[in-house]
Automatic annotation (TrEMBL), chain A:
One of its GO terms (cellular component) is cytoplasmic side of plasma membrane. ATP binds at residues 13-20. This is Septum site-determining protein MinD. GO terms for biological process: division septum assembly; negative regulation of cell division. Pfam families: AAA_31. GO terms for molecular function: ATP binding; ATP hydrolysis activity. The keyword Hydrolase does not apply.
Amino acid sequence: MTNTKIIVITSGKGGVGKTTTSAAFAMGLALEGHKTAVVDFDVGLRNLDLIMGCERRVVYDFVNVINKEARLNQALIRDKRTENLYILPASQTKDKESLTMEGVETVLNELKETFDYIVCDSPAGIEHGAFMAMYFADEAVVVTNPEISSVRDSDRILGLLASKTKRVVENRTPVKEHLLLTRYSPERVSRGEMLSVKDIQEILSIPLLGVIPESEAVLTASNQGVPVIANRNSDAGMAYQDCVARFLGEDIEMRFIDPKKKSIFSKFFGGN
Amino acid sequence: MPNSAKHDNKVAFDLKGTSFTILVLSLRKNDLDAAAVQLVEKVRQAADFFHNAPVVISLQHLDEEEQIDLAMLVSIVRAQGFIPVGITGCTEQQKHQAAAMELAVLTTRAGGRGQEEFVAEEPVLIPLPAAQEKPITATDTSLILTEPVRSGQSVTVEQGDLTVMASVGSGAEITAPGNIHVYGTLRGRAFAGCNGSPKARIFCQRLEAELVSIAGIHLVSEDFPAHLRSKAVHIRLHGGRLHITAL
């Protein structure tokens, strides 16, 4: 495929929802009919397989393919629920140094031959693993929680995206940046306990892809190994669907950014 | 030729600026009786030292609404052997009163009223921190950046000014031997006059900086006065201290 897009899901800070977003985003793209591979770059701390619910089917991993101990299609795991979706798990036993620049490039180039989108789940931090995950990216989704430490780390990552990626080195148009706010609680924002969408956008000054509300559905989905986007009735699932649609060019209004109004119906039906 | 005056017999005087150390009597409250009693006591301790000493009366610590009897205050000061030469930190009305008494109105860096200026307490010299990342270095005279300077980035110009037409993130550093202009929010650290030039200045649209420094004299965020935070300001070095003024 000549038009394959490599998307890195990154944040700097850990625990903000990169893997949850990678899983949801990749599944969302696949559900829209795009052939998608999601690659776990978190070598040594692999989680993506758990979130995707394929941990029992891992035979070979990313590092095996880099070291030519396995072929790419031996390591790729087909998602059982969604057509067009494949997972390339990370190695749990190796360390990040196993991701060599040449090795990663070779694997990504091979993925490009068959996939429309390659979603790279970056590890936290700004070290080698995160660098490898972002280096070849065409677009970046910067996952940020509404708290200052996360916002500062995202700012740091944006600086690296603007200076240390292949697109910059080769003088091509820079990596396209998207802001994704996760664990957002409009109620807490309205009480002044959390940074608002506006505050964060003002600090980071990149376009907003979407806002994922703080939701019980996320933890439930993680523990069941089902990307939260598959739960079409949950607020977080709907918010991720909106994000994917926006990413693909649709113009959709932001939801879940204002405090919920308690109606008599929500009391009856226990609205989520 | 500035030195020609010395050799030119037709010139009767030189007129130039200089500075003297001068006593400032700064009134803490509008209680002239107490001030008179305490001044007598003060002078009694060192009469020779204060005799015929020029003094400037500062009203900057008084509320603007307070009506102070300036003539009375001046006569109290004169009675103890001082020579009042001027007043400072006064309101418009007090300026007129001072003029009537032939007293000069002095505007010092700290004395101006209504002028949103902040003067740092004590200057602290710090060496420039080593840049964290490989700095973006411009060998040309000045540099204009249109993109934000992100956390962790360090931008240094070798010569001239640095202008950022966006924000400087918290944890970012910008350094220039000349002036620094930030047309966004300054959240990181700014080092102007990094080669030791005390004439360098820092300008920003919104002051939320972690640290500002001119010629090695710095102030950290905690030292900024609340009323100038998140404001458009101008920072300069004068008399060894950093001055922050609202733009």
